[in-house]
Amino acid sequence: MRHFVKFSLGFVILYAACLGFNVPEASAQETQGFEGTLTVRLDPDSREKTPVADVSIGASLDGQEVGTSTSDEDGNFTIAVDEPGTYTITIDTETLPDGITLRDRANAGRTLDLLPGQTKKVAFPLLSDTTAGSETADFLGKVARLTVDGIRFGLILAMCSIGLSLVYGTTRLVNFAHGELVTIGAVAALALDGPLPFLAAAALAILITATAAAANEVGLWKPLRKRGTGLIGMLVISIGLSLLIRHLVLFAIGGDRQTYSRFTSQTGFDVGPLILTWRQVISAAICIVTLVGVAYFINNTKFGKAMRAVADNRDLAESSGIDVNRIISYVWIGGGLLAGLGGVLLGLDQQVRWDMGWELLLLIFAAVVLGGLGTSYGALLGSLVVGVFIQLSTLIIPPEVKNVGALLVLIVILLLRPQGILGRAERIG
Question: 183-224: per-residue pLDDT in tens?
Fold first, then answer.
């Protein structure tokens, strides 16, 4: 009980320090709403784009149309709205000029969350008959775009998954509160973005998440291990801890989706059939560099070798002079750093929500189990498989149920290889 009280007080102090900064609100603007530019490439031998005029775009809220706009001679359109909310922006494909279609013909609408005073960019990629080629080329372009989106999401998922996998490998704890570490990273960055430059806010948010993970280990899990608490009991405790943290975050920031104040919109650029933003490119690069660094650290440093020894055989590692408890503490800190970074990048890629970590947790478990429990490389490979399969599954199923596809591929692979892709088979009995 004494250790639990210490843990509770430490977490409350940490959380209060994070919430000491108010979540920044968007600065007041003359208008709030949506804007964008319609352009299309007409010459297959040139990258130059031509504006598309006289195309109708509408905005609806709760099924009621609240505004319309027509693109001008430069292809620009603006729709002003009176209140924040979740809007559906739809392009009227019948007003497109002859020979020009949507690149994604099945998706003429965009669902976007608008914050108070915010003007959000809306993109409708267009395709010309002179550059579209055949239906096959159009389909292959969509496959390429979904694959890249899946790889980007898989890299972020890997950042969040490796910590859970390493903790399981060294302690055999299935931590249902790991998703809340992702949420803490995103929410802390949101709270500090404004009072601090975003890079400083992100760095401090990652450190806050690592501190929260260390507090978990020192104040709760380590004392429970010393008392001989069973793994089932610790699993149930992790579920309760997840509920506690999640609803504290809900109380602190509310149930609305929020966006980092400096990243409300970015203009995309074309790379072949792909439309990317620098934010997406930099985010993917950060993930790749970090994951390569983690792989090098695990394989080529003294601590990494000690961590692998603890994961392979804890008793043998302890008898050979390795401080097992210190290794486990460092694993928790490292897992917290990765989860915090994953939360910040997920908030950049999507939006910050009070339950974003909980929604991601099932996919994290799928990635870890698919790759092989307790292996960092397995978590990376499983995350990439899950990310790509989720995005590609939208070719045949509605996007709203795309996560189901990841669970189906998990079931199929585990039926063929129960230990996961990179896991090791173990003798039972």
Answer: 999 999 999 987 888 899 999 999 999 999 999 999 999 999
CB neighbours of residue 48 within 10 Å:
9
Q: Could you state, in order of their start, the residue ranges of all structural domains in the chain?
A: 2-20+146-416, 35-130
> Which H or E element spans position 127?
strand 126-128
The pair of structure tokens assigned to 210 is: 């690592």
* pLDDT tens figures, 218-227: 999 999 999 9
Edge-first strand order for the sheet with 56-61 is: 64-70, 56-61, 85-91, 109-114
Element (H, E) at 109: strand 109-114
Residues 6+ apart with CB under 8 A from 280: 152, 349
Query: Domain 35-130 in CATH: superfamily?
Result: Immunoglobulins (2.60.40.10)
Low-confidence ranges of the chain (pLDDT < 50): 1-9, 11-30, 134, 428-429
**DSSP bridge pairs for 119:** 33
Residues in a beta bridge with 70: 56
The pLDDT tens digits for 117-152 are 788 888 888 888 776 554 555 677 778 888 988 999
Nearest to 342 by CA among 210, 192, 145: 210
**β pairing state of 119-121 and 33-37:** parallel
CATH 3.40.30 matches 2-20+146-416: no
Say how many residues make up the chain.
Answer: 429
Phi, psi for 416 (deg, rounded to 5): -85, -35
For residue 265, give the nearest of 67, 47, 103, 29 by alpha carbon: 29
Instruction: Identify the pLDDT of residue 157.
Output: 93
Name, in order, each residue with C-beta under 8 angstroms of 324's C-beta and a sequence gap of 6 or more. 310, 314, 317, 318
